[in-house]
Amino acid sequence: MNRSTTINNIGRFLFMGIAPILLLFQIPASAQFAPPAGQVGSTAIKADSSIFVNWADSCLINRGFVDMSNASLGLATYGSDSSAYGFADKGVVSLGDGGSAILYFSTPIVDGPGNDFAVFENSFNDDFLELAFVEVSSDGVDFVGFPSVSNTQTVEQIATFGTLDATKLYNMAGKYRGGYGTPFDLNELQYSDDLDVQNIRYIKIVDVVGSLADAYASHDSQGNKINDPWPTPFESSGFDLDAVGIINDVEHLAVDKISGQEIIIYPVPFTNVLNIGKIERNSVISIFDLNSRLVYSSKCADSNFSLSGSSLPKGLLILRIESGSLLIYKRILHK
Protein backbone atom coordinates (compact mmCIF):
# COMPACT_ATOMS: atom_id res chain seq x y z
CA MET A 1 0.00 0.00 0.00
CA ASN A 2 1.35 3.45 -0.92
CA ARG A 3 2.09 5.61 2.11
CA SER A 4 1.63 9.34 1.49
CA THR A 5 3.23 11.82 3.89
CA THR A 6 3.43 15.60 4.14
CA ILE A 7 5.81 18.14 5.59
CA ASN A 8 3.42 19.61 8.11
CA ASN A 9 5.13 18.27 11.27
CA ILE A 10 6.64 21.58 12.34
CA GLY A 11 7.48 20.38 15.85
CA ARG A 12 9.89 17.74 14.56
CA PHE A 13 11.83 20.31 12.55
CA LEU A 14 11.95 22.79 15.43
CA PHE A 15 13.48 20.07 17.57
CA MET A 16 16.15 19.62 14.90
CA GLY A 17 17.06 23.27 15.23
CA ILE A 18 16.19 24.46 11.75
CA ALA A 19 13.27 26.74 12.53
CA PRO A 20 14.68 29.63 10.42
CA ILE A 21 14.53 27.45 7.33
CA LEU A 22 10.99 26.32 8.08
CA LEU A 23 9.78 29.87 8.30
CA LEU A 24 10.48 30.18 4.60
CA PHE A 25 7.84 27.56 3.89
CA GLN A 26 5.06 28.81 6.15
CA ILE A 27 2.27 30.18 3.99
CA PRO A 28 -0.02 32.92 5.34
CA ALA A 29 -3.68 31.91 5.16
CA SER A 30 -4.59 35.28 3.63
CA ALA A 31 -1.78 35.34 1.06
CA GLN A 32 -2.40 36.30 -2.54
CA PHE A 33 -0.57 33.92 -4.84
CA ALA A 34 0.60 34.08 -8.46
CA PRO A 35 -2.00 35.28 -11.03
CA PRO A 36 -3.11 33.57 -14.29
CA ALA A 37 -0.77 32.91 -17.22
CA GLY A 38 0.39 36.01 -19.06
CA GLN A 39 -0.11 38.37 -16.13
CA VAL A 40 2.69 40.09 -14.23
CA GLY A 41 3.93 37.80 -11.47
CA SER A 42 2.52 34.60 -12.95
CA THR A 43 4.61 31.44 -12.56
CA ALA A 44 2.93 29.69 -15.52
CA ILE A 45 5.34 28.05 -17.98
CA LYS A 46 4.32 27.62 -21.61
CA ALA A 47 4.46 24.07 -22.94
CA ASP A 48 6.92 24.91 -25.73
CA SER A 49 9.40 26.62 -23.38
CA SER A 50 13.04 25.59 -23.88
CA ILE A 51 13.30 25.17 -20.10
CA PHE A 52 11.76 21.68 -20.40
CA VAL A 53 14.35 18.95 -20.87
CA ASN A 54 12.19 15.83 -20.59
CA TRP A 55 8.67 14.42 -20.16
CA ALA A 56 7.11 11.42 -18.42
CA ASP A 57 7.83 7.95 -19.87
CA SER A 58 4.73 6.09 -18.70
CA CYS A 59 1.59 6.47 -16.62
CA LEU A 60 -0.66 4.28 -14.46
CA ILE A 61 -4.24 5.53 -14.01
CA ASN A 62 -6.60 4.78 -11.11
CA ARG A 63 -9.98 6.19 -12.18
CA GLY A 64 -12.44 7.83 -9.81
CA PHE A 65 -16.22 8.06 -10.08
CA VAL A 66 -17.79 10.69 -12.34
CA ASP A 67 -19.73 11.72 -9.23
CA MET A 68 -18.56 10.40 -5.88
CA SER A 69 -21.99 11.04 -4.39
CA ASN A 70 -23.66 8.80 -6.99
CA ALA A 71 -21.51 5.73 -7.63
CA SER A 72 -24.17 4.26 -9.94
CA LEU A 73 -22.97 6.64 -12.67
CA GLY A 74 -19.71 4.71 -12.87
CA LEU A 75 -16.12 5.80 -13.40
CA ALA A 76 -14.63 8.54 -15.57
CA THR A 77 -13.69 7.13 -18.96
CA TYR A 78 -12.28 9.94 -21.10
CA GLY A 79 -8.76 9.50 -22.51
CA SER A 80 -6.13 6.85 -21.79
CA ASP A 81 -2.88 6.56 -19.88
CA SER A 82 -0.87 7.36 -23.02
CA SER A 83 -2.46 10.81 -23.08
CA ALA A 84 -0.56 11.73 -19.90
CA TYR A 85 3.03 11.02 -20.94
CA GLY A 86 5.18 12.70 -23.54
CA PHE A 87 4.87 16.34 -24.63
CA ALA A 88 1.97 18.53 -23.47
CA ASP A 89 -0.34 18.51 -26.52
CA LYS A 90 -3.75 19.01 -24.80
CA GLY A 91 -4.59 15.33 -25.25
CA VAL A 92 -5.75 14.37 -21.76
CA VAL A 93 -6.90 11.58 -19.48
CA SER A 94 -9.67 12.39 -16.98
CA LEU A 95 -9.14 11.10 -13.45
CA GLY A 96 -12.66 11.35 -12.01
CA ASP A 97 -13.51 12.25 -8.40
CA GLY A 98 -10.47 11.44 -6.26
CA GLY A 99 -8.83 9.49 -9.10
CA SER A 100 -5.07 9.45 -9.52
CA ALA A 101 -2.24 9.02 -11.98
CA ILE A 102 1.30 7.86 -11.23
CA LEU A 103 3.84 8.97 -13.83
CA TYR A 104 7.26 7.31 -14.18
CA PHE A 105 10.52 8.97 -15.26
CA SER A 106 13.41 6.77 -16.37
CA THR A 107 15.80 9.70 -15.88
CA PRO A 108 15.42 10.91 -12.27
CA ILE A 109 14.19 14.42 -11.57
CA VAL A 110 16.47 16.39 -9.24
CA ASP A 111 16.23 19.43 -7.00
CA GLY A 112 18.05 21.95 -9.15
CA PRO A 113 17.94 25.73 -9.50
CA GLY A 114 14.39 27.13 -9.23
CA ASN A 115 11.40 25.00 -10.22
CA ASP A 116 12.02 21.37 -11.14
CA PHE A 117 8.90 20.28 -13.05
CA ALA A 118 5.47 21.50 -14.14
CA VAL A 119 2.05 19.85 -14.43
CA PHE A 120 -0.31 20.59 -17.34
CA GLU A 121 -4.13 20.47 -17.38
CA ASN A 122 -6.45 21.49 -20.25
CA SER A 123 -8.66 24.28 -18.90
CA PHE A 124 -10.02 26.40 -21.76
CA ASN A 125 -9.65 29.69 -19.86
CA ASP A 126 -8.11 31.28 -16.75
CA ASP A 127 -11.16 30.83 -14.53
CA PHE A 128 -12.66 27.37 -15.06
CA LEU A 129 -10.10 25.36 -13.13
CA GLU A 130 -10.09 21.72 -12.01
CA LEU A 131 -7.48 21.05 -9.36
CA ALA A 132 -5.23 18.23 -8.20
CA PHE A 133 -2.72 17.49 -5.46
CA VAL A 134 0.87 16.67 -6.46
CA GLU A 135 3.03 14.07 -4.70
CA VAL A 136 6.51 12.74 -5.51
CA SER A 137 8.43 9.56 -4.72
CA SER A 138 11.90 8.12 -5.11
CA ASP A 139 10.82 4.47 -4.90
CA GLY A 140 7.20 4.39 -6.08
CA VAL A 141 6.01 3.35 -2.61
CA ASP A 142 6.49 6.33 -0.29
CA PHE A 143 4.93 9.50 -1.69
CA VAL A 144 5.30 13.00 -0.23
CA GLY A 145 2.78 15.71 -1.07
CA PHE A 146 3.54 19.36 -1.78
CA PRO A 147 1.95 21.69 0.79
CA SER A 148 -1.13 23.06 -0.97
CA VAL A 149 -3.29 26.07 -0.09
CA SER A 150 -6.80 26.98 -1.22
CA ASN A 151 -8.10 30.35 -0.01
CA THR A 152 -11.30 30.04 -2.05
CA GLN A 153 -14.44 30.68 0.02
CA THR A 154 -16.08 27.62 1.57
CA VAL A 155 -19.54 29.08 2.25
CA GLU A 156 -21.18 28.32 -1.10
CA GLN A 157 -20.46 25.35 -3.35
CA ILE A 158 -18.89 26.30 -6.69
CA ALA A 159 -21.25 24.89 -9.31
CA THR A 160 -20.41 22.52 -12.15
CA PHE A 161 -19.39 25.31 -14.52
CA GLY A 162 -18.35 27.81 -11.84
CA THR A 163 -15.06 29.70 -11.73
CA LEU A 164 -11.99 30.04 -9.50
CA ASP A 165 -9.44 32.78 -8.80
CA ALA A 166 -5.87 31.56 -9.40
CA THR A 167 -4.48 34.09 -6.92
CA LYS A 168 -6.14 32.11 -4.12
CA LEU A 169 -4.38 28.85 -5.04
CA TYR A 170 -0.87 27.61 -4.21
CA ASN A 171 0.93 24.37 -5.12
CA MET A 172 -2.11 22.92 -6.84
CA ALA A 173 -1.97 21.42 -10.33
CA GLY A 174 -4.62 22.89 -12.64
CA LYS A 175 -4.01 26.46 -11.47
CA TYR A 176 -3.33 27.58 -15.07
CA ARG A 177 -5.17 27.23 -18.38
CA GLY A 178 -4.33 24.62 -21.00
CA GLY A 179 -0.90 24.95 -22.59
CA TYR A 180 0.63 26.43 -19.42
CA GLY A 181 2.18 24.31 -16.68
CA THR A 182 1.98 24.85 -12.93
CA PRO A 183 5.56 24.60 -11.58
CA PHE A 184 6.78 22.80 -8.46
CA ASP A 185 10.08 23.13 -6.59
CA LEU A 186 11.47 20.01 -4.89
CA ASN A 187 13.40 22.24 -2.50
CA GLU A 188 10.15 22.57 -0.52
CA LEU A 189 10.37 18.86 0.31
CA GLN A 190 14.09 18.60 1.07
CA TYR A 191 13.59 17.66 4.75
CA SER A 192 10.92 15.01 4.12
CA ASP A 193 11.41 11.45 5.36
CA ASP A 194 11.58 8.59 2.85
CA LEU A 195 12.38 10.94 -0.03
CA ASP A 196 15.56 11.70 -1.96
CA VAL A 197 14.94 14.98 -3.78
CA GLN A 198 17.94 14.23 -6.00
CA ASN A 199 16.31 11.02 -7.22
CA ILE A 200 12.62 11.48 -8.04
CA ARG A 201 11.28 8.83 -10.41
CA TYR A 202 7.54 9.01 -9.70
CA ILE A 203 4.99 11.82 -9.60
CA LYS A 204 1.44 11.20 -8.43
CA ILE A 205 -1.43 13.48 -9.47
CA VAL A 206 -4.54 13.14 -7.25
CA ASP A 207 -7.83 14.75 -8.24
CA VAL A 208 -9.28 17.21 -5.74
CA VAL A 209 -12.92 16.44 -4.96
CA GLY A 210 -14.30 19.97 -4.88
CA SER A 211 -17.35 19.17 -2.81
CA LEU A 212 -17.99 21.08 0.42
CA ALA A 213 -19.92 18.13 1.87
CA ASP A 214 -18.02 16.61 4.79
CA ALA A 215 -18.41 13.11 3.36
CA TYR A 216 -16.56 13.93 0.14
CA ALA A 217 -14.48 17.09 0.68
CA SER A 218 -10.75 17.34 0.00
CA HIS A 219 -8.59 19.48 2.29
CA ASP A 220 -5.43 21.52 1.71
CA SER A 221 -2.30 21.35 3.89
CA GLN A 222 -3.80 23.88 6.31
CA GLY A 223 -6.99 21.89 6.83
CA ASN A 224 -9.20 24.07 4.60
CA LYS A 225 -11.87 22.45 2.44
CA ILE A 226 -11.05 22.93 -1.24
CA ASN A 227 -13.94 24.36 -3.24
CA ASP A 228 -13.81 23.79 -6.99
CA PRO A 229 -16.44 23.03 -9.69
CA TRP A 230 -18.54 20.06 -8.50
CA PRO A 231 -20.21 17.83 -9.35
CA THR A 232 -18.93 17.16 -12.87
CA PRO A 233 -20.92 14.00 -13.77
CA PHE A 234 -19.45 13.45 -17.23
CA GLU A 235 -17.06 10.96 -18.80
CA SER A 236 -14.40 13.69 -18.48
CA SER A 237 -15.02 14.16 -14.75
CA GLY A 238 -12.27 15.42 -12.49
CA PHE A 239 -8.75 16.60 -13.23
CA ASP A 240 -7.80 16.31 -16.91
CA LEU A 241 -4.10 15.41 -16.97
CA ASP A 242 -2.21 16.50 -20.07
CA ALA A 243 1.48 16.05 -19.20
CA VAL A 244 4.31 16.61 -16.74
CA GLY A 245 7.31 18.52 -18.06
CA ILE A 246 10.74 18.19 -16.43
CA ILE A 247 12.97 21.21 -15.88
CA ASN A 248 15.80 19.63 -13.85
CA ASP A 249 16.87 16.00 -14.22
CA VAL A 250 20.08 14.16 -13.43
CA GLU A 251 21.11 13.90 -17.07
CA HIS A 252 20.90 17.59 -17.87
CA LEU A 253 21.97 19.07 -14.55
CA ALA A 254 25.04 16.82 -14.45
CA VAL A 255 26.65 18.45 -11.45
CA ASP A 256 29.11 15.58 -11.04
CA LYS A 257 30.52 16.17 -14.53
CA ILE A 258 31.63 19.74 -13.89
CA SER A 259 33.72 19.33 -10.74
CA GLY A 260 36.94 19.78 -12.70
CA GLN A 261 35.71 22.69 -14.80
CA GLU A 262 37.42 25.97 -13.87
CA ILE A 263 35.19 28.93 -14.59
CA ILE A 264 35.54 32.40 -13.11
CA ILE A 265 32.40 34.39 -12.27
CA TYR A 266 32.84 37.83 -10.71
CA PRO A 267 31.96 39.98 -8.89
CA VAL A 268 29.59 38.00 -6.67
CA PRO A 269 27.16 39.51 -5.95
CA PHE A 270 27.22 41.89 -8.93
CA THR A 271 25.63 45.27 -9.57
CA ASN A 272 26.64 46.88 -12.86
CA VAL A 273 28.53 44.18 -14.77
CA LEU A 274 28.76 40.40 -14.51
CA ASN A 275 32.00 38.87 -15.81
CA ILE A 276 32.49 35.23 -16.79
CA GLY A 277 35.95 33.93 -17.65
CA LYS A 278 37.67 30.75 -18.83
CA ILE A 279 34.68 29.41 -20.73
CA GLU A 280 34.84 27.57 -24.05
CA ARG A 281 34.28 29.60 -27.20
CA ASN A 282 30.72 29.46 -28.59
CA SER A 283 29.28 28.57 -25.20
CA VAL A 284 25.70 29.74 -24.66
CA ILE A 285 25.09 31.91 -21.61
CA SER A 286 21.49 31.91 -20.31
CA ILE A 287 20.02 33.53 -17.21
CA PHE A 288 16.70 32.59 -15.61
CA ASP A 289 14.69 34.07 -12.76
CA LEU A 290 13.50 31.85 -9.90
CA ASN A 291 10.25 31.15 -11.76
CA SER A 292 12.35 29.49 -14.49
CA ARG A 293 11.66 32.28 -16.98
CA LEU A 294 14.46 33.03 -19.42
CA VAL A 295 15.58 36.66 -18.97
CA TYR A 296 18.79 36.64 -21.03
CA SER A 297 20.57 34.45 -23.59
CA SER A 298 23.67 34.97 -25.75
CA LYS A 299 26.41 32.98 -27.49
CA CYS A 300 30.01 33.77 -26.48
CA ALA A 301 32.52 34.30 -29.27
CA ASP A 302 35.42 34.47 -26.81
CA SER A 303 36.54 32.71 -23.63
CA ASN A 304 35.71 35.80 -21.57
CA PHE A 305 32.28 37.38 -21.38
CA SER A 306 30.80 40.50 -19.78
CA LEU A 307 27.13 41.31 -19.31
CA SER A 308 25.52 44.59 -18.27
CA GLY A 309 23.39 44.34 -15.15
CA SER A 310 20.97 46.93 -16.55
CA SER A 311 19.36 44.24 -18.72
CA LEU A 312 18.67 41.89 -15.80
CA PRO A 313 16.10 41.90 -12.98
CA LYS A 314 17.31 42.39 -9.42
CA GLY A 315 17.53 39.52 -6.96
CA LEU A 316 18.60 35.90 -7.06
CA LEU A 317 19.08 34.55 -10.60
CA ILE A 318 20.18 31.29 -12.17
CA LEU A 319 23.13 31.31 -14.58
CA ARG A 320 23.36 28.48 -17.09
CA ILE A 321 26.48 27.91 -19.20
CA GLU A 322 25.97 25.46 -22.06
CA SER A 323 29.06 24.10 -23.77
CA GLY A 324 28.44 21.18 -26.09
CA SER A 325 26.79 18.46 -24.00
CA LEU A 326 27.88 20.07 -20.73
CA LEU A 327 25.53 22.20 -18.63
CA ILE A 328 26.76 24.28 -15.70
CA TYR A 329 24.35 25.99 -13.29
CA LYS A 330 25.25 28.71 -10.78
CA ARG A 331 23.12 30.86 -8.50
CA ILE A 332 24.03 34.55 -8.78
CA LEU A 333 22.79 37.60 -6.89
CA HIS A 334 22.09 40.86 -8.72
CA LYS A 335 21.99 43.81 -6.29
Summarize this structure briefly.
The protein is mostly beta strands. It is built from three helices and 22 strands. It has helices at residues 10-15, 19-23, 250-253; strands spanning 3-5, 45-46, 54-55, 58-62, 93-94, 100-109, 117-120, 132-137, 142-145, 149-150, 169-170, 180-184, 200-207, 240-241, 243-246, 264-266, 273-277, 284-288, 294-299, 305-308, 315-323, 326-334.
Which range best describes the helical content: under 10%, 10-25%, 25-40%, 40-55%, 55-70% or over 70%?
A: under 10%
Question: What is the count of helical runs?
Answer: 3
Q: How many whole angstroms does the radius of gyration measure?
A: 21 Å
Mean pLDDT: 88
Give the biggest beta sheet. 6 strands, mixed
Along the chain, the helix and strand elements come as EHHEEEEEEEEEEEEEEHEEEEEEE
Beta fraction of the residues?
25-35%
Query: What is the number of E strands?
Result: 22
* 3D shape: elongated
Please state how the strands of the largest beta sheet are arranged side by side: 1-9-8-13-6-4
Structural class: mainly beta
Which ranges are low-confidence, i.e. pLDDT below 50, for 5 or more consecutive residues?
Answer: 1-25, 254-259
Total of domains: 2
The first-to-last residue Cα distance is 49 Å
